[in-house]
C-alpha cells in the first residue's frame, strides 16, 4: 500500500497547496516540500522494513479495478523501479527548491501540477497492469504540459503543444499495442488480461511480436528521446520553467528507458534481439547528433537539452547490446544523467534569475563575482562530459565496454561522443564564467548552495562507489 499512499498523498497535498495559497501567501511551497520530503522518508523506511525481496519484480498490491475487462489495480517493485523512485523523490525536492522564488504567478496551481506529475511518475515506475500503466502515463504527461504552457518562457505555448502532440501520438501507438496484447491473451487463454506477469507467460508468434514490440518501442523512444523522434525535447526544455526542465531531463526521460527495459526487452526478447542492430544504430546516431547539435547552440538550456539526447543514446546502445556489463552501465547512466542534467538546468535557472538571459553571447566572466557558482558549474560540466571520479564516467564507460563486446565498430563511433561532450561542456563553462566580465552578479544563496552541493555530493559518491546502486538492496528489503 505504500505506493498508493504516496500517490494519493501527493495529489491530496497538491489540492491542499492549491487551496491554501489563496488563504496564506507562500504556504503552497512549504506544503509541497514537507509532503515530498515526508513521502521520501516514508518510502525509504517502508522498503528497509519490508520482508520482501526485490531482486525480482514483486507484486505489492493487486486489486480488481474494472471487472468487465479484467483490468486490475496492480503495483509491483523491483530493484530497477526502486532506484528510479528514489531518483524521482530526490529530484522532486530539487524541483520544489528551484521553484522557491522563480514562480510568483498562480503559485498554488503550479505546485498542484508539480505534485500531480510526481504522482504520475511514481505510478509509471510501479504499475504492473498495462492499462493502469497507460493511465499513469497520461496522468504524468498532462500536468507536465500545463507546467510548460502556463509557467514557461516566451514560446511556451508552441513548446507545450509540440510536447503534447509527440507524446500523445506515440502514446496512441502504445495503447493499440496494449489492446492487441490483451486480445492475443484472450485468444490464447480464453480470458482478457492486462497483467504484466500473465503476458510474460504467453507463447507469441515472432511475426506478431515484432509489430507489437514496435508499438511500445516507438512510444518509449519518443520519451527517451532517440533520433529521429527527439525534436520536441529542445523546445520543451528551453521554454519550460527551471523545475520543468529538471523534471523532464532528470525523471521523465527515464520513463522512456524504463519502458524499454520492462515492456520491450523483457516482454519481447526475441523480437528485441532481432531489432537490436537498428536500435543500436539509432543510439549511436543520437550520441553523435546530440553532441554536434549541443556544440552549435547559443542558449544555455538548449545546449544542455541536446546533450541529454546524446547521453540517452548511450542508454539505448547499452540496453540493446544485451550484455550484463552494458546493462549495469545503462542503469548507472540513468541515475547519473538524472543528477547531472538536473544540476545543469538548475544552474541555468540561477543564471537566468540574475541576468534574465540564457544567451551565451551575453554571458562571460561570471567567475569574478560568483566563484562558488562557477566552481559548481565547472564540476557539473565535468560530470556531464564524463570526468573520472564522477558518476557519468562509470555509466558511460561500462555502457561502451559492454557494447564493444557485441557491436565493436558501433561502440568505437559511440566513444567519439565522449570527446564531443568534453568540447561542449567546456564551451558552456568558458562562455559563462571565463573571459571578460560582462556582469557583476550575486553568488549562490544558501538555498542554491544546498541544491548544488547535494547534487554534487551524490555524483561523487556514485562515481566513487557505483556498486551502491546494486548492493544497497542487501539491506533495502533484500531479505
Structure notes:
The chain has a domain at 276-479. The protein is mainly alpha-helical. A two-stranded antiparallel ribbon has the order 1-2. It has helices at residues 2-23, 27-49, 79-98, 107-124, 130-151, 156-189, 196-200, 206-223, 232-239, 242-265, 269-295, 300-319, 324-355, 371-384, 391-404, 408-433, 446-464, 468-471; strands at 58-66, 71-77. β1 and β2 form a beta hairpin. α11 runs antiparallel to α12 and α13 (324-355) runs antiparallel to α14.
Order of helices and strands: HHEEHHHHHHHHHHHHHHHH
Please, what is the average pLDDT? 91
How would the global form be characterised? globular
Strand count: 2
How many H/I helices?
18
Radius of gyration: 21 Å
End-to-end C-alpha gap: 19 Å
- Major sheet details: 2 strands, antiparallel
Determine the fraction of residues in helical runs and give it as a percent range. Answer: over 70%
Give the structural class: mainly alpha
| Arrangement of strands in the largest sheet | 1-2
Task: Describe the secondary-structure layout.
Blueprint: H1 2-23, H2 27-49, E1 58-66, E2 71-77, H3 79-98, H4 107-124, H5 130-151, H6 156-189, H7 196-200, H8 206-223, H9 232-239, H10 242-265, H11 269-295, H12 300-319, H13 324-355, H14 371-384, H15 391-404, H16 408-433, H17 446-464, H18 468-471
Antiparallel strand pairs: 1-2
Helix pairs in contact: 1-2, 1-4, 2-3, 2-4, 3-4, 3-10, 3-13, 4-5, 5-6, 6-8, 6-9, 8-10, 8-11, 9-10, 9-12, 10-12, 10-13, 11-12, 11-16, 12-13, 12-15, 12-16, 13-14, 13-15, 13-17, 14-16, 14-17, 15-16, 15-17
Amino acid at each position: 500500500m505504500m505506493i498508493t499512499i504516496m500517490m494519493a498523498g501527493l495529489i491530496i497535498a497538491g489540492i491542499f497547496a492549491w487551496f491554501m495559497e489563496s488563504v496564506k501567501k507562500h504556504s503552497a511551497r512549504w506544503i509541497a516540500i514537507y509532503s515530498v520530503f515526508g513521502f521520501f522518508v516514508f518510502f525509504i523506511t517502508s522498503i528497509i522494513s519490508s520482508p520482501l525481496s526485490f531482486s525480482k519484480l514483486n507484486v505489492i498490491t493487486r486489486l480488481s479495478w474494472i471487472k468487465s475487462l479484467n483490468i486490475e489495480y496492480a503495483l509491483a517493485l523491483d530493484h530497477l523501479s526502486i532506484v528510479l523512485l528514489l531518483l524521482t523523490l530526490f529530484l522532486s525536492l530539487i524541483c520544489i527548491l528551484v521553484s522557491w522564488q522563480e514562480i510568483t504567478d498562480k503559485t498554488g496551481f503550479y505546485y498542484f501540477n508539480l505534485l500531480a506529475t510526481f504522482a504520475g511518475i511514481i505510478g509509471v515506475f510501479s504499475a504492473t497492469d498495462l492499462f493502469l500503466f497507460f493511465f499513469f502515463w497520461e496522468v504524468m504527461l498532462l500536468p507536465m504540459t500545463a507546467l510548460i504552457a502556463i509557467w514557461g518562457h516566451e514560446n511556451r505555448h508552441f513548446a507545450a503543444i509540440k510536447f503534447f502532440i509527440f507524446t500523445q501520438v506515440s502514446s496512441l501507438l502504445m495503447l493499440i499495442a496494449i489492446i492487441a496484447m490483451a486480445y492475443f491473451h484472450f485468444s490464447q487463454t480464453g480470458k482478457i488480461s492486462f497483467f504484466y506477469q500473465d503476458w510474460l507467460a504467453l507463447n507469441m508468434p515472432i511475426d506478431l511480436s515484432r509489430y507489437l514490440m514496435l508499438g511500445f518501442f516507438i512510444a518509449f523512444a519518443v520519451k527517451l528521446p532517440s533520433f529521429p523522434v527527439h525534436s520536441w525535447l529542445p523546445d520543451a526544455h528551453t521554454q519550460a520553467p527551471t523545475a520543468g526542465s529538471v523534471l523532464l531531463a532528470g525523471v521523465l526521460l527515464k520513463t522512456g528507458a524504463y519502458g524499454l527495459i520492462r515492456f520491450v526487452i523483457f516482454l519481447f526478447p526475441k523480437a528485441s534481439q532481432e531489432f537490436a542492430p537498428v536500435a543500436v544504430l539509432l543510439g549511436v546516431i543520437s550520441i553523435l547528433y546530440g553532441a554536434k547539435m549541443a556544440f552549435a547552440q547559443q542558449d544555455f538550456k538548449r545546449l544542455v537539452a541536446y546533450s541529454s539526447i546524446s547521453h540517452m543514446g548511450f542508454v539505448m546502445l547499452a540496453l540493446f547490446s544485451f550484455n550484463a556489463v552494458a546493462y549495469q552501465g545503462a542503469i548507472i547512466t540513468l541515475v547519473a544523467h538524472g543528477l547531472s542534467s538536473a544540476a545543469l538546468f538548475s544552474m541555468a535557472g540561477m543564471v537566468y534569475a540574475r541576468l534574465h538571459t540564457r544567451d551565451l553571447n551575453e554571458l562571460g566572466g561570471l567567475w569574478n563575482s560568483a566563484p562558488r557558482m562557477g566552481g559548481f558549474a565547472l564540476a557539473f560540466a565535468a560530470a556531464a562530459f564524463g570526468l573520472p571520479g564522477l558518476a557519468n564516467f562509470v555509466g558511460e564507460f561500462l555502457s561502451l565496454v559492454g557494447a564493444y563486446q557485441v557491436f565493436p565498430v558501433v561502440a568505437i563511433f559511440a566513444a567519439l561522443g565522449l570527446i564531443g561532450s568534453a568540447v561542449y561542456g567546456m564551451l558552456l563553462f568558458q562562455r559563462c564564467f571565463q573571459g571578460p566580465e560582462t556582469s557583476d552578479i550575486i553568488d549562490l544563496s544558501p538555498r542554491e548552495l544546498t541544491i548544488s552541493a547535494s547534487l554534487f555530493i551524490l555524483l561523487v559518491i556514485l562515481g566513487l562507489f557505483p556498486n551502491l546502486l546494486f548492493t544497497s538492496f542487501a539491506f533495502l528489503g533484500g531479505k
